[in-house]
Amino acid sequence: MTDNQATVGARPFRFGVVAPLRTDLPAWRDQVRRIADSGFSTLLMPDVQQWQPAPGPTLAVAATLANLRVGTWVYASPLRMPWSMAWEAHSLSVLTEGRFEMGIGTGRPGIEDELRELGLPVVTPGERLSQVRDTVTSLRELDGPDLHTPVAMAVRGPKAQALAADLADTVTFAAMPGDSRAEMMRLAADFRAIRDVELALHVPVVGDAVAPFMTRPVHDTPRHGPGRATRGGLAPDTPERPDGGHRGDLEAAGGQRLLLLRCRRQRR
């Protein structure tokens, strides 16, 4: 489990795949098992309403199919009450015997339209960030002294980074279209100067096809189908699999949608 304190010594890479349930159940169950057999450590699910089962129960099922860690990538804070989200996260930690990781952020681009459609309050970015804090605070209270649910936060601006420095076990930086490698390296270096935590690199696309939840937001379909999910992007190069395999093997494992690379840097 991710430790909330800086760890001396080498920290290994962890690889995960975001694999929402977008097929029939038998095919998805086979996909989960292939992901585990291919050497990945973590299976993650996006928080996209209306066109997939809710991430909580789906991840609980996935944890019974293979010895994988499971997590959300990531909960959108304005879609649920903080106490409800914290209760679900704590419950998943208990049911998976400590294999759940709660990813949380303030929502995808276009989240305001989704909130209006669902009849939920459209709150400001600052209020959404406060919801993240309230959720993690409630989760820590529910976990108590004997359980620690790792929290991954997707951040960008200085206020979100400051909150992550206080609360997160893992941090990923929300990339914007046109961000250079140098800009992302600067974000990581600046955050490391504040706190030594696990950093996560999100590779948006592996392969030639963009998954529905990684496409740009659209607003012209009833109830907003798969194209509703988020912005898209193409990765020019495909990373190797953790055991040295390449893209074809990753796709055979069902991981063509997303690859999450988590790196714990060596503390100096």
Oligomer: single chain
Beta-strand percentage range: 15-25%
What is the CATH topology assignment? TIM Barrel
CATH class membership: Alpha Beta
Total separate domains: 1
* Total beta-strand segments: 9
Distinct helical segment count: 8
The helix-and-strand class reads alpha/beta
Give the SSE order as H and E letters.
EHEHEEHEHHEHEHEHE
Average of per-residue pLDDT values:
79
- State the helical fraction: 25-40%
The CATH homologous superfamily corresponds to Luciferase-like domain
Low-confidence stretches: 1-9, 219-268
Looking at the overall shape, the CATH architecture is: Alpha-Beta Barrel
Which key terms come to mind for this protein?
single chain, 268 residues, 8-stranded mixed beta barrel, 16% strand, disordered N terminus
What's this entry about, in short?
The protein is of the alpha/beta class and 268 residues long.
Secondary-structure blueprint:
Elements (H helix, E strand, L loop, with lengths): L12 E6 L6 H13 L4 E4 L9 H11 L3 E4 L2 E2 L5 H14 L4 E6 L5 H8 L6 H19 L7 E5 L2 H10 L2 E4 L7 H12 L5 E6 L43 H6 L6 E5 L5
Helix pairs in contact: 2-3, 3-5
3D architecture notes:
This protein has one domain: Luciferase-like domain (TIM Barrel), CATH 3.20.20. Helices cover 35% and strands 16% of the residues. The protein contains eight helices and nine strands. The chain has helices spanning 25-37, 55-65, 82-95, 111-118, 125-143, 158-167, 181-192, 247-252, and strands at residues 13-18, 42-45, 69-72, 75-76, 100-105, 151-155, 170-173, 198-203, 259-263. Strands 1-2-3-5-6-7-8-9 form an eight-stranded mixed β-barrel, surrounded by six helices. Helix 1 (25-37) links the parallel strand 1 (13-18) and strand 2 (42-45). Helix 2 runs parallel beside helix 3 and helix 3 (82-95) packs across helix 5 (125-143). The longest helix has 19 residues, at 125-143. The chain starts with 12 loop residues before the first strand and ends in a 5-residue tail after the last strand. The model is unreliable at 1-9 and 219-268 (pLDDT under 50).
